[in-house]
Amino acid sequence: MKFMKKLGVIALSLALVISMNTSVFAKASWHDYIGFDGKPGHTWYEAADGKVVGIAKNKWTAKLKTIGWGGVWGAQIFQDVNITKGRKYRIKFKMKSTDINKWVVIKIAKKDKIAYVKWIHLKKGKYTKINETFVAKKNASQIYFGIGGEFGDRDDEKDIYDYLKKRPSDGKSNVAEKSTKILLRKYSLKPATKVKPSKTYCRCGCPYCK
Hints:
mainly beta
C-alpha cells in the first residue's frame, strides 16, 4: 500500500512538471524558418542551416552552422503580435552574434504592409541594445527577426533595403559558409502609452449630460 501511495505521488509530480513545461512553451510562441536545415520542405540551398534553441517568452538562441547567402530571410524567427496603425509602441531587447559581424533586420508587418523596420549591425561578441519607441505605420500581425546571410543583392528585399542609406553586406562571399550564434535576450514589445478609457455618459444632470 505504501508503495502504491509513493507511486501515486511520483505520477502526480511528473504530471505537474509536464503541465508546467507545457504552459511555459505555450506562452513562448516564437516560430522559426531556417531555409536549409533539412526539415521537410526546407530545401532553399542559398539559405542558412542551423536550429533555434532556448526559446522562451523573451529570448531565443539561433545556432547557425552556416549563414548562407540567401539574404536575411534565409533564417528568420517570428511571433504573432497585435499592432494598430497610428499607435505608439516601445520595443526593447539586446542581441549578439558570437563569431562574426552580422546584419540583422527586425520587421513588424502584415504581409506586405509594413508597420516598422529596423536594421542592426551586430559586432562580433558584443551585445547591441535596442530601446526605442515608434508609431506604427500600418496594422500588423507578426514581428520577424531576419538573421540569414545578407549581401545586399536580393530583389525580394528591396522593401527593407529602403530603410538604409547603403545596402547591408555581411562581407565577402566566403562569409556565407561561416557559423555563428545569434542571441536575443530581454525582448519586449508593448504599447508606449496607455489607452484612456472612454467616458461614460449618463442622464443625471451632471456636467457630462449638459
